[in-house]
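Reminder: ligand-aware prediction takes two inputs, not one.
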Amino acid sequence: MAVTAHRKTYSKTYSSWGGVLRAPHEAVLPTARAEAAAALVEPFPNGVVPYGNGRSYGDVGLNPLGGLLDMRGLDRFIAFDPETGLMTCEAGVTLADILAVTARPEADGGGWLLPVMPGTRFITVGGAIANDVHGKNAHRLGSFGCHVEALELARSDGRVLTCSRSENADLFRATIGGLGLTGLILSATLRLRRVPGLGVETEDIRFDHLDRFFDLDAESTGTWEYTAAWIDCLATGTALGRGIYSRSRHVAGVAAQPPARHPHIGVPLAPPISAVNGLSVRAFNALYWRKLGASGRKLSLGAYEPAFFPLDAIDHWNRLYGPKGFFQFQAVVPPADAKAVTGALLGAIATSGQGSMLVVLKRFGEVASEGLLSFPMPGISLALDFPNRGASTTTLLARLEAIVVEAGGRIYPAKDFCMSARSFAAGYPGLEAFRSHLDPAMTSAFARRVGIVREDIP
Ligand SMILES: Cc1cc2nc3c(=O)[nH]c(=O)nc-3n(C[C@H](O)[C@H](O)[C@H](O)COP(=O)(O)OP(=O)(O)OC[C@H]3O[C@@H](n4cnc5c(N)ncnc54)[C@H](O)[C@@H]3O)c2cc1C
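Here is what comes back for the chain with flavin-adenine dinucleotide:
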């Protein structure tokens, strides 16, 4: 441990969720907002990155050998108005913490939910804002940042600024989706959403080709709140892009427990080799595709929690990929050519024989994300994991990146480990405007790799 006038630092190893990068950092573990803000003022020799709960798959939240501000100790609620749904909390509070307090089955109508819920609730409010995360209702309610009313931002010059749409509005727009590079979010005020109940009605529909996904999507997005499809990434030819389309909406009258804060089962150790491989993926996909029986359709009622956060049921599921870890790829491509481009992406993946069971295809709608570097834009988004097989996987990822950039799309920083600076600049036209809001103390392995910040720290 090193102690200076403003902070204590601990030499601590942090890793990406995909497990490909594991590196020591000089970590600061503040437990109060004033302490976190003060820690930022004294320069870090190799810059500093804010760290939420480490659920980003790649290197956005890492700064190997440099400073890291671990925000998990800032986990207090500050205010909640059950009449308006306005919640103010510290940046290290997780979405699971919020839901445990506000999504109450005994409350009239099931209480309040977060308007935007990504595939895991084990992320912090700071991380959700900094990646401007999205959920399965992006076509209706946009991204997380659309529901942030204000945030408190510490800068390394010692200022703590309130940022909102009416105060420091440009900095607010830069900080939504700003990847932790505009300063340290200390707290935020979120507008929660009242729902009719904690139950959801879900209809699953099997489809036998990518074209059919687009038909189902066209008929569903107007009437269903949450939509997404699972895809069999190894299917080829006339079965290319086959999968299961799921559409859900909130309903009243389904008995539901308050969400659990922690999973009940977990993967204690990584197996020596990845449990996810060509054989296991092919076998799983064949069974899963048939899970709806002869009718190919199923309507079910259940609690929202397992429906929205299936992976949260297993602690450290990422260890199943073995010691080499895995990459995740997520991109969005514009609507005009989405069918052809998604077909090209899935064709390249199926031909490579790589991929996993976890593949999600979904539509982003016209609700604009406000952040200068926000990922969501209108179009179709494909996300999937790839076990790390070394050069054959990174070559495939480079091929997918080229298809996306050529189509005018973009890759999601929260999931990325490989994107080039050129592809980042092509996908994010707000980059130049964003640079004027950078905090000079902030950096990350991602920010250096894609050229957002220019200094060359090891
Ligand atoms: C199972 C699973 C499912 C997922 N599903 C989705 C999904 O459906 N949609 C989606 O959009 N994402 C999804 N993600 C990705 C995840 O939501 C994001 O990566 C999220 O940002 C992680 O938040 P975190 O708190 O873990 O932050 P970290 O991963 O630790 O950090 C993320 C970014 O936030 C910055 N940051 C963290 N705290 C602060 C702060 N206080 N101030 C300033 N910057 C800060 C970091 O520097 C970094 O740039 C999923 C991830 C997993 C593991």
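The mean pLDDT is 93. Residues 145 and 234 are 35 Å apart (CA to CA). We will return to this case in the review session.
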